């Protein structure tokens, strides 16, 4: 069932550019150069109830601007946006009851109050019944181990504890949709894993629709069925991670650690370049890296000529990292 519908959504920001220095300030006072920034530029998509979507893109691509329009914080320049049949910027309060929002960099909790007090305030704001509140709080306490820090003021919590607390706060009213902006930013590996696992549990229990913006691709790999990729305000990919991997994931990387000062003639790869013109071989600090298409060339064909020519201390063979694949899509398109 469709829960979010966005059609030809646009958001322009008007920026006034000034020249540097005091002269520039005075000049811009009279005739500043007006620039229109198309932060979101004709974006359309639909999201079904229960989907977990990874909304990714480079810095400044338009992710936050889209989320702000979905949460009702910003009014679109044009186009349509509906969240569970409501136009968010027209009915902000009603929309707020249907959604939960977590911004990794900020907190929605009251800094000086013990955490439990923040939850009590939210219970009143969202008019959550005693039974529901008790049931949810005990469920989240078990998942996140809240008892350890629930009586502490929020300002004393560690970043990981604060993130858990914010996620609980956003879910107490059992929203249909959860917007998560960088939920694992700044956390250590174990805390990240804990957050991801818990989000999966919550999704399984409540079938919450989750829209996640992140620069951490492990979040995407572990959580998302679908990726929407935005760049310069336009959606450049909307589909599964499997499709991306099938199309771009055929690269393999072999990295040789060479004995210091050993010689290596890269022309040995010329013959292989006829089979795979995109093969790249490079040397830096006694490390020889060869990137090639595993569907066109066998790993053995790379290793044999290198071993015949030079002293190798170590060999590391890996598939191309998702990060490189995504970077290449940002650069060259899908
Ligand atoms: N209030 C604003 N006034 C003017 N320009 C803005 C405003 N908000 C965002 N922009 C511009 O719109 C573009 C999109 O910004 P947005 O914050 O949506 O990007 P993002 O994809 O969330 O980036 P990041 O990954 O860095 O958070 C950027 O060029 C940004 O500078």
From TrEMBL:
Stored SUPFAM superfamilies: P-loop containing nucleoside triphosphate hydrolases
Q: Which InterPro entries match?
A: AAA+_ATPase (IPR003593), ABC_transporter-like_ATP-bd (IPR003439), ABC_transporter-like_CS (IPR017871), ABC_transporter_ATP-binding (IPR050763), P-loop_NTPase (IPR027417)
Q: Any keyword Nucleotide-binding? A: yes
ABC transporter domain spans which residues? Answer: 20-257
Name the UniProt key words of this record, in alphabetical order.
Answer: ATP-binding, Nucleotide-binding, Transport
A GO molecular-function term, please? ATP binding
Query: Transport: present as a keyword of the record?
Result: yes
| Name under which the protein is recorded | ATP-binding cassette domain-containing protein
């Amino acid at each position: 069932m469709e829960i979010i519908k966005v059609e030809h959504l646009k958001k322009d920001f008007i920026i006034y550019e000034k020249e540097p220095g005091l002269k520039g300030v005075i000049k811009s006072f009279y005739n500043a150069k007006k620039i229109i920034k198309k932060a979101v530029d004709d974006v359309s998509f639909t999201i079904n109830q229960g989907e977990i979507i990874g909304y990714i893109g480079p810095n400044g691509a338009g992710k936050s601007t889209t989320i702000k329009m979905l949460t009702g914080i910003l009014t679109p320049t044009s186009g349509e946006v509906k969240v569970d049949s409501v136009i968010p910027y027209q009915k902000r309060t009603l929309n707020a009851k249907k959604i939960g929002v977590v911004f990794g960099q900020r907190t929605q909790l009251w800094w000086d109050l013990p955490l439990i007090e923040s939850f009590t305030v939210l219970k009143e704001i969202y008019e959550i019944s005693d039974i529901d509140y008790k049931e949810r709080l005990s469920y989240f306490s078990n998942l996140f181990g809240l008892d350890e820090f629930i009586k502490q003021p929020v300002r004393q919590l560690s970043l990981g504890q604060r993130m858990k607390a914010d996620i609980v706060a956003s879910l107490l009213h059992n929203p249909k949709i959860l917007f998560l902006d960088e939920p694992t930013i700044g956390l250590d590996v174990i805390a990240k894993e804990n957050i991801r696992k818990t989000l999966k549990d919550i999704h399984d229990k409540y079938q919450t629709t989750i829209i996640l913006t992140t620069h951490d691709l492990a979040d995407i790999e572990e959580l998302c069925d679908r990726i929407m990729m935005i760049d310069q305000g336009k959606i450049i990919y909307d589909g599964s991670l499997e499709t991306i991997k099938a199309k771009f994931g055929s690269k393999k990387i072999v990295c040789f650690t060479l004995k210091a000062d050993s010689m290596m003639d890269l022309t040995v790869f010329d013959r292989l370049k006829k089979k795979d013109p995109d093969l790249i071989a490079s040397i830096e600090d006694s490390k020889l890296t060869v990137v090639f298409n595993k569907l066109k060339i066998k790993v053995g064909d790379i290793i044999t000529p290198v071993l015949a020519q030079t002293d190798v201390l170590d060999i590391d063979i890996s598939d191309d990292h998702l990060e490189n694949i995504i970077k290449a899509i940002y650069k060259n398109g899908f």
